[in-house]
Amino acid sequence: MDLRAKVESIIEALEAKFGVPQREARKDPLNVLIGAILSQNTSDRNSGRAYQALRGRFPTWDDVLSAETDQIADTIRIGGLADQKARRIKDILLWIKKTHGRLNLDFICDMDPQDVIDTFCRLKGIGIKTMSVVLCFACGRDVFPVDTHILRVSERLGLVPPKTPPDKAHRILGGLVPEGKAYPFHLNLLAFGRGICKARDPKCEECPVPEYCLMKSGAMDLQG
Ligand code: SF4
Protein backbone atom coordinates (compact mmCIF):
# COMPACT_ATOMS: atom_id res chain seq x y z
CA MET A 1 0.00 0.00 0.00
CA ASP A 2 1.43 3.40 -0.85
CA LEU A 3 1.79 6.03 1.86
CA ARG A 4 -1.06 8.25 0.66
CA ALA A 5 -3.50 5.33 0.68
CA LYS A 6 -2.21 4.34 4.12
CA VAL A 7 -2.79 7.87 5.46
CA GLU A 8 -6.34 7.85 4.06
CA SER A 9 -7.02 4.51 5.70
CA ILE A 10 -5.63 5.76 9.05
CA ILE A 11 -7.72 8.94 8.80
CA GLU A 12 -10.83 6.82 8.24
CA ALA A 13 -10.06 4.52 11.20
CA LEU A 14 -9.36 7.44 13.54
CA GLU A 15 -12.55 9.23 12.49
CA ALA A 16 -14.50 6.04 13.21
CA LYS A 17 -12.92 5.96 16.67
CA PHE A 18 -12.85 9.66 17.62
CA GLY A 19 -15.32 11.32 15.24
CA VAL A 20 -14.60 14.13 12.78
CA PRO A 21 -13.37 17.24 14.62
CA GLN A 22 -15.11 20.39 13.44
CA ARG A 23 -13.27 23.65 13.21
CA GLU A 24 -13.88 26.13 16.00
CA ALA A 25 -14.13 29.87 15.38
CA ARG A 26 -10.90 31.35 14.07
CA LYS A 27 -8.57 32.78 16.66
CA ASP A 28 -6.36 35.83 16.61
CA PRO A 29 -3.08 34.86 14.88
CA LEU A 30 -0.84 36.87 17.21
CA ASN A 31 -2.54 35.43 20.29
CA VAL A 32 -2.02 31.92 18.91
CA LEU A 33 1.61 32.66 18.01
CA ILE A 34 2.48 33.87 21.51
CA GLY A 35 0.52 30.99 23.03
CA ALA A 36 2.49 28.56 20.86
CA ILE A 37 5.79 30.06 21.97
CA LEU A 38 4.73 29.74 25.60
CA SER A 39 3.77 26.11 24.99
CA GLN A 40 7.29 25.08 23.94
CA ASN A 41 8.86 22.48 26.26
CA THR A 42 6.07 22.50 28.82
CA SER A 43 2.65 21.02 29.47
CA ASP A 44 -0.56 22.50 28.02
CA ARG A 45 -1.67 23.23 31.58
CA ASN A 46 1.39 25.29 32.51
CA SER A 47 1.58 27.11 29.20
CA GLY A 48 -2.12 27.97 29.52
CA ARG A 49 -1.49 29.41 32.96
CA ALA A 50 1.50 31.40 31.70
CA TYR A 51 -0.57 32.79 28.84
CA GLN A 52 -3.43 33.81 31.16
CA ALA A 53 -0.96 35.45 33.55
CA LEU A 54 0.64 37.39 30.69
CA ARG A 55 -2.70 38.62 29.34
CA GLY A 56 -3.89 39.44 32.85
CA ARG A 57 -0.89 41.61 33.65
CA PHE A 58 -0.45 43.13 30.18
CA PRO A 59 -3.83 43.39 28.45
CA THR A 60 -2.46 44.41 25.02
CA TRP A 61 0.56 43.22 23.03
CA ASP A 62 1.77 46.82 23.02
CA ASP A 63 1.80 46.61 26.83
CA VAL A 64 3.97 43.50 26.61
CA LEU A 65 6.30 45.23 24.17
CA SER A 66 6.65 48.21 26.54
CA ALA A 67 7.33 46.01 29.57
CA GLU A 68 10.79 45.10 30.83
CA THR A 69 11.92 41.62 29.80
CA ASP A 70 12.33 40.72 33.48
CA GLN A 71 8.72 41.67 34.18
CA ILE A 72 7.54 39.45 31.35
CA ALA A 73 9.73 36.58 32.54
CA ASP A 74 8.43 36.86 36.11
CA THR A 75 4.86 36.80 34.81
CA ILE A 76 5.28 33.66 32.69
CA ARG A 77 7.58 31.80 35.10
CA ILE A 78 5.15 28.89 35.52
CA GLY A 79 5.53 28.00 31.82
CA GLY A 80 9.25 27.19 32.14
CA LEU A 81 12.22 28.66 30.24
CA ALA A 82 10.75 32.00 31.28
CA ASP A 83 13.80 34.20 30.64
CA GLN A 84 14.38 32.78 27.18
CA LYS A 85 10.69 32.91 26.22
CA ALA A 86 10.34 36.47 27.54
CA ARG A 87 13.29 37.64 25.43
CA ARG A 88 11.96 35.90 22.36
CA ILE A 89 8.44 37.22 22.79
CA LYS A 90 9.75 40.77 23.10
CA ASP A 91 12.02 40.38 20.07
CA ILE A 92 9.21 38.91 17.98
CA LEU A 93 6.77 41.67 18.98
CA LEU A 94 9.41 44.28 18.21
CA TRP A 95 10.08 42.75 14.79
CA ILE A 96 6.36 42.65 13.95
CA LYS A 97 5.90 46.27 15.04
CA LYS A 98 8.93 47.47 13.08
CA THR A 99 8.15 45.44 9.98
CA HIS A 100 4.39 45.82 9.82
CA GLY A 101 3.70 48.97 11.83
CA ARG A 102 1.37 47.40 14.36
CA LEU A 103 0.95 44.35 16.53
CA ASN A 104 -1.52 42.47 14.39
CA LEU A 105 -0.91 39.41 12.25
CA ASP A 106 -4.27 39.10 10.49
CA PHE A 107 -2.54 39.67 7.14
CA ILE A 108 -0.68 36.36 7.28
CA CYS A 109 -3.97 34.51 6.82
CA ASP A 110 -4.15 35.86 3.26
CA MET A 111 -0.55 34.97 2.41
CA ASP A 112 0.77 31.79 0.88
CA PRO A 113 1.33 29.46 3.90
CA GLN A 114 4.83 28.49 2.78
CA ASP A 115 5.80 32.17 2.49
CA VAL A 116 4.52 32.72 6.03
CA ILE A 117 6.53 29.77 7.32
CA ASP A 118 9.68 30.86 5.47
CA THR A 119 9.39 34.44 6.74
CA PHE A 120 8.60 33.78 10.38
CA CYS A 121 10.91 30.81 10.84
CA ARG A 122 13.84 33.20 10.42
CA LEU A 123 12.96 34.62 13.85
CA LYS A 124 14.49 33.04 16.95
CA GLY A 125 11.94 30.97 18.86
CA ILE A 126 9.70 30.30 15.88
CA GLY A 127 9.87 27.00 14.07
CA ILE A 128 7.79 25.27 11.45
CA LYS A 129 5.55 23.64 14.07
CA THR A 130 4.76 26.97 15.72
CA MET A 131 3.85 28.65 12.43
CA SER A 132 1.87 25.61 11.28
CA VAL A 133 -0.20 25.83 14.47
CA VAL A 134 -0.89 29.52 13.79
CA LEU A 135 -1.85 28.90 10.16
CA CYS A 136 -4.04 25.89 11.00
CA PHE A 137 -5.79 27.12 14.15
CA ALA A 138 -5.90 30.88 13.71
CA CYS A 139 -6.11 31.21 9.94
CA GLY A 140 -8.09 28.07 9.15
CA ARG A 141 -5.51 27.05 6.54
CA ASP A 142 -5.04 23.47 5.46
CA VAL A 143 -1.64 23.10 7.14
CA PHE A 144 -0.69 20.04 9.20
CA PRO A 145 1.22 20.81 12.44
CA VAL A 146 3.52 18.03 13.69
CA ASP A 147 4.17 17.94 17.43
CA THR A 148 5.98 15.35 19.51
CA HIS A 149 2.92 13.05 19.78
CA ILE A 150 2.23 13.17 16.07
CA LEU A 151 5.86 12.53 15.22
CA ARG A 152 6.01 9.50 17.53
CA VAL A 153 2.78 7.99 16.20
CA SER A 154 3.76 8.68 12.59
CA GLU A 155 7.02 6.82 13.13
CA ARG A 156 5.27 3.86 14.72
CA LEU A 157 2.82 3.72 11.85
CA GLY A 158 5.61 3.90 9.28
CA LEU A 159 4.51 7.24 7.81
CA VAL A 160 7.96 8.71 8.40
CA PRO A 161 11.23 6.84 9.01
CA PRO A 162 12.36 6.39 12.63
CA LYS A 163 14.13 9.40 14.15
CA THR A 164 13.01 11.75 11.39
CA PRO A 165 13.89 15.37 12.34
CA PRO A 166 10.70 17.37 13.04
CA ASP A 167 11.17 19.79 10.12
CA LYS A 168 11.58 16.91 7.69
CA ALA A 169 8.54 15.16 9.18
CA HIS A 170 6.51 18.33 8.53
CA ARG A 171 7.48 18.25 4.89
CA ILE A 172 6.81 14.52 4.47
CA LEU A 173 3.48 14.47 6.31
CA GLY A 174 2.34 17.76 4.78
CA GLY A 175 2.63 16.09 1.39
CA LEU A 176 0.72 12.98 2.46
CA VAL A 177 -2.35 14.47 4.15
CA PRO A 178 -5.27 14.79 1.71
CA GLU A 179 -6.67 18.24 0.96
CA GLY A 180 -9.05 19.48 3.65
CA LYS A 181 -7.92 16.90 6.21
CA ALA A 182 -5.05 18.71 7.96
CA TYR A 183 -7.17 19.99 10.87
CA PRO A 184 -9.24 16.87 11.66
CA PHE A 185 -6.31 14.50 11.10
CA HIS A 186 -4.05 16.61 13.32
CA LEU A 187 -6.57 16.59 16.18
CA ASN A 188 -7.39 12.89 15.87
CA LEU A 189 -3.74 11.84 15.66
CA LEU A 190 -3.09 14.01 18.71
CA ALA A 191 -5.96 12.37 20.63
CA PHE A 192 -4.64 8.97 19.56
CA GLY A 193 -1.08 9.80 20.63
CA ARG A 194 -2.09 11.27 23.97
CA GLY A 195 -4.71 8.70 24.92
CA ILE A 196 -3.72 5.40 23.29
CA CYS A 197 -0.39 5.37 21.45
CA LYS A 198 1.44 6.93 24.38
CA ALA A 199 5.22 7.22 24.56
CA ARG A 200 5.39 4.62 27.32
CA ASP A 201 2.89 1.84 27.84
CA PRO A 202 0.74 2.38 24.76
CA LYS A 203 -2.73 0.88 25.08
CA CYS A 204 -2.37 -1.35 22.05
CA GLU A 205 -5.52 -3.28 22.87
CA GLU A 206 -7.48 -0.08 22.06
CA CYS A 207 -5.58 0.71 18.86
CA PRO A 208 -7.78 1.36 15.81
CA VAL A 209 -4.86 0.87 13.37
CA PRO A 210 -2.82 -2.10 14.67
CA GLU A 211 -2.33 -3.48 11.17
CA TYR A 212 0.02 -0.59 10.36
CA CYS A 213 2.09 -0.69 13.54
CA LEU A 214 5.81 -1.30 13.05
CA MET A 215 6.20 -2.10 16.76
CA LYS A 216 3.64 -4.88 16.53
CA SER A 217 5.33 -6.29 13.48
CA GLY A 218 8.66 -6.19 15.34
CA ALA A 219 10.21 -3.69 12.90
CA MET A 220 10.54 -1.10 15.68
CA ASP A 221 10.75 -0.98 19.47
CA LEU A 222 9.55 1.58 22.05
CA GLN A 223 12.74 3.60 21.59
CA GLY A 224 12.23 3.70 17.83
S1 SF4 B 1 -0.44 -1.01 18.16
FE1 SF4 B 1 0.16 0.15 20.00
S2 SF4 B 1 2.16 1.08 19.56
FE2 SF4 B 1 1.26 0.38 17.64
S3 SF4 B 1 0.26 2.18 16.77
FE3 SF4 B 1 -1.28 1.04 17.93
S4 SF4 B 1 -1.25 1.89 20.01
FE4 SF4 B 1 0.61 2.58 18.96
Describe the structure.
The chain is an all-alpha fold. It folds into two domains: 3-22 and 145-212, Orthogonal Bundle (Endonuclease Iii, domain 2), CATH 1.10.1670; 29-138, Hypothetical protein, domain 2 (Endonuclease III, domain 1). It is 56% helix and 0% strand. It has eleven helices and no strands. The longest helix has 19 residues, at 82-100. The mean pLDDT is 94. The structure holds iron/sulfur cluster (SF4). Iron/sulfur cluster (SF4) binds at residues 156-157, 196-197, 202, 204, 207, 210, 213, 215-216. Residues 156-157, 196-197, 202, 204, 207, 210, 213, 215-216 line the site of iron/sulfur cluster.
Enter the CATH topology name of the largest domain. Answer: Endonuclease III, domain 1
Order of helical and strand elements: HHHHHHHHHHH
- Mind telling me the C-alpha Rg? 19 Å
Overall structural domain count: 2
Count of helical stretches = 11
Which architecture of the largest domain does the CATH hierarchy give at level 2?
Orthogonal Bundle
Uncertain runs = none
Seen as an oligomer or otherwise, the chain set is single chain
Strand content: under 5%
Give the strand tally. Answer: 0
Termini gap: 22 Å
Approximately how much helix is present in the residues?
55-70%
* CATH class categorisation of the largest domain: Mainly Alpha
Major sheet summary line: none
Shape: globular
Question: Which homologous superfamily in CATH is the superfamily of the largest domain?
Answer: Hypothetical protein, domain 2
Structural class category: mainly alpha
> What is the average per-residue confidence, as pLDDT, rounded to a whole number?
94
Bound molecules: iron/sulfur cluster
